[in-house]
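Long-time lurker, first post. I've been practising inverse folding by hand and with some scripts of my own, and I keep getting stuck on stretches where the structure tokens seem ambiguous. Below is the full token string for one chain I'm working on. Before anyone asks, I'm not after the true native sequence, just a reasonable design that respects the backbone. If someone could post their per-position residues I'd love to compare against what I wrote down in my notebook.
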């Protein structure tokens, strides 16, 4: 498993999901973080300790603590990516295989998941993102595809819920799903601004 701490500009840009604003309607999905779909047992709000107990790969509690401590430094400001080993998440025949599984943790908890699915057999195309969204909505008991918002991309849809968003997209036979909590980007930004201002004030020519 690869565990990556990246500059925050990269961290926030790497999640291909639209940020929800207060003006956007969430009437179609009133689900909370506690009701957000779980991906292979990984849930929004799960602690780092619980996540790496599920996917240990020989890493100790001290190792997890060192990663959390490092993530608190500038410019991560509490956030870091973990790249879960796909062999560990593909240990069931009840689900289609995943080709990548990235988890973003903030202040020691999972706040975002980015899952890429292995292409369909024989590269059969999805034939439009709505076919993928229909499968996702049915599997996770989410609002129908008609409740999902169309983005600037014809191959992407977003479901805005009360405390999280879900973005689904397709490209040929491949599909991607991102589940992301709300608010942590603003907190990271505020911490960065405060740190930078304090650093500049502390400068002594």
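-- Answer (accepted) --
I ran through it position by position. Result:
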């Amino acid at each position: 498993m690869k565990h990556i701490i990246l500059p925050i500009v990269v961290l926030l840009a790497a999640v291909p999901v639209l940020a929800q604003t207060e003006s956007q309607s969430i009437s179609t999905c009133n689900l909370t973080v506690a009701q957000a779909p779980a991906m292979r047992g990984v849930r929004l709000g799960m602690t780092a300790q619980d996540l790496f107990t599920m996917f240990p790969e020989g890493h100790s509690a001290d190792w997890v603590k060192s990663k959390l401590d490092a993530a608190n430094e500038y410019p991560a400001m509490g956030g870091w990516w973990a790249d879960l080993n796909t062999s560990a998440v593909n240990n069931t025949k009840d689900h289609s295989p995943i080709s990548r599984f990235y988890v973003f943790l903030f202040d020691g908890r999972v706040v975002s998941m980015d899952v890429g699915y292995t292409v369909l057999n024989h590269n059969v195309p999805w034939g439009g993102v709505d076919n993928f969204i229909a499968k996702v909505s049915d599997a996770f008991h989410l609002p129908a595809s008609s409740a999902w918002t169309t983005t600037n991309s014809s191959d992407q849809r977003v479901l805005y819920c009360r405390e999280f968003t879900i973005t689904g997209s397709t490209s040929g036979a491949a599909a991607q799903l991102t589940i992301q909590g709300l608010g942590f980007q603003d907190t990271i930004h505020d911490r960065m601004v405060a740190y930078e201002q304090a650093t500049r004030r502390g400068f002594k020519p």
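A couple of notes from the structure itself: The chain has six helices and eight strands. The chain has a mean pLDDT of 86. Happy to go over any region you disagree with.
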